[in-house]
Design goal:
Distance between the termini: 18 Å
Strand order of the largest sheet: 3-4-5-6-8-7
CATH class: Alpha Beta
Number of helices: 4
CATH topology: Yope Regulator, Chain: A
CATH architecture: 2-Layer Sandwich
Largest sheet: 6 strands, antiparallel
Structural class: alpha+beta
Radius of gyration: 15 Å
Low-confidence stretches: 1-6, 146-158
Number of strands: 8
Strand content: 25-35%
């Protein structure tokens, strides 16, 4: 167990780690493949391209959940929801960004803003590149004065 993992609260029912004790969530064990069953191959390709973009910032834990796929370092900073022919998702940024790439922005606190997007083609993923490293830093909680190091980053779960 890395130093980072030891610092997380672990749900006693499902074993998932969270930055906050007793974090609200839906316990369950889900597979990544379940999200892509019956979907066209280009939908899986959108996910793979998004994952590659995220991994440029550093190691990430991929958490398949019942209705979404979350991306976590200390906290979840991005998510994808697979639809029949496209992918919906959001990035959590420490600032509010009004940009055409995002069709909706939800503010949860002064330093946590979910920026919602839709992915239909590879270029849609590429257009998110300027914001992914910033969201990854939020996942590390760098915006709160915490810093992750390469030796304390999570192992990837698929």
């Amino acid at each position: 167990m890395s130093r980072r993992d030891a610092d997380l609260w672990e749900c006693p029912r499902c074993g998932r780690g969270f930055a906050n004790r007793n974090q609200s969530h839906a316990c369950g064990t889900w597979t990544l493949d379940r999200h892509f069953d019956g979907r066209p191959t280009h939908v899986r390709a959108l996910y793979e391209r998004f994952l590659a973009l995220v991994e440029r910032s550093g190691p990430v834990r991929v958490l398949p959940e019942k209705t979404r796929i979350a991306f976590q370092v200390r906290m979840s900073f991005a998510q994808l929801t697979v639809r029949r022919h496209w992918v919906l998702g959001h990035l959590v940024l420490a600032r509010r960004v009004e940009d055409a790439r995002f069709h909706k922005v939800e503010s949860f606190s002064p330093r946590n803003h979910a920026h919602h997007f839709r992915l239909d083609e590879a270029e849609d993923v590429d257009r998110l590149a300027p914001f992914v490293a910033e969201a990854y830093a939020v996942g590390c909680q760098a915006h709160l004065g915490r810093a992750e190091t390469a030796d304390s980053a999570p192992s990837q779960v698929r």
